[in-house]
Design goal:
The complex is a heterodimer of chains A (112) and B (113). By secondary structure, chain A is an all-beta fold. Helices cover 0% and strands 53% of the residues of chain A. Chain A has strands at 9-13, 18-23, 32-38, 45-50, 55-56, 61-64, 70-75, 84-94, 97-102, 106-111. In chain A, strands 1, 3, 4, 8, 9 and 10 form a 6-stranded mixed β-sheet that branches. A 4-stranded antiparallel β-sheet of chain A has the order 2-7-6-5, with no helix packed on it. In chain A, strand 5 (55-56) and strand 6 form a beta hairpin. Chain B has 113 residues and is an all-beta fold. In chain B, the strands form 2 sheets. In chain B, strands 2, 4, 5, 6, 9, 10 and 11 form a 7-stranded mixed β-sheet that branches. Chain B has a 4-stranded antiparallel β-sheet with strand order 1-3-8-7, with no helix packed on it. In chain B, a hairpin with a 6-residue loop joins strand 7 and strand 8 (75-79). Chain B is globular and about 40 Å long. Classes of the chains: A mainly beta (112), B mainly beta (113).
Chain lengths: 112, 113
Amino acid sequence: DAKTTQPNSMESNEEEPVHLPCNHSTISGTDYIHWYRQLPSQGPEYVIHGLTSNVNNRMASLAIAEDRKSSTLILHRATLRDAAVYYCIRGRTTSGTYKYIFGTGTRLKVLA
Amino acid sequence: DTGVSQDPRHKITKRGQNVTFRCDPISEHNRLYWYRQTLGQGPEFLTYFQNEAQLEKSRLLSDRFSAERPKGSFSTLEIQRTEQGDSAMYLCASSPRGDYEQFFGPGTRLTVL
């Protein structure tokens, strides 16, 4: 199963929007796109997920390209607490099992 | 706190020893997953339980690894004859029936000397 591709690291100033890109060019039509973030020594924390349409929640927005080969996680106003590793994940069902295929993640640094 | 819990949080062992980790999922979550995460990498799927049935195992799970989920509640992951390459964070996640979102525990960090 092909993993997603993300930049290794990004920086943002506090209070500014952040756009975290993800490439998933081999995604199939039924694969969901999930985003999680992980702080040091903690398990991943859910951020948002979607299939085809753009999605919004209280944490972030997810913009999915029309061809679904890429997506962008948008944090509208970065805070210092948003500094984490962000994972773009393919969620797919194989042999009846729905499982996550993680990429290598983007380490987001937020500058005060 | 009603989240996923894992025990122990840290384990240091010598090569060749056996270790066992425990995961307590969120109550009534029938799906349970184990992942392994090495330094600088994203988690990788190891195995999946639906209730007490182990439905899928990754080829990463060698015959030294065994996982159980008796009675469909907590789960254990045992590694026999540990090797230095087993050093990693072992994450457990659970998910309710009919939902795609997985809830992760804090992980168990294993160091094999």
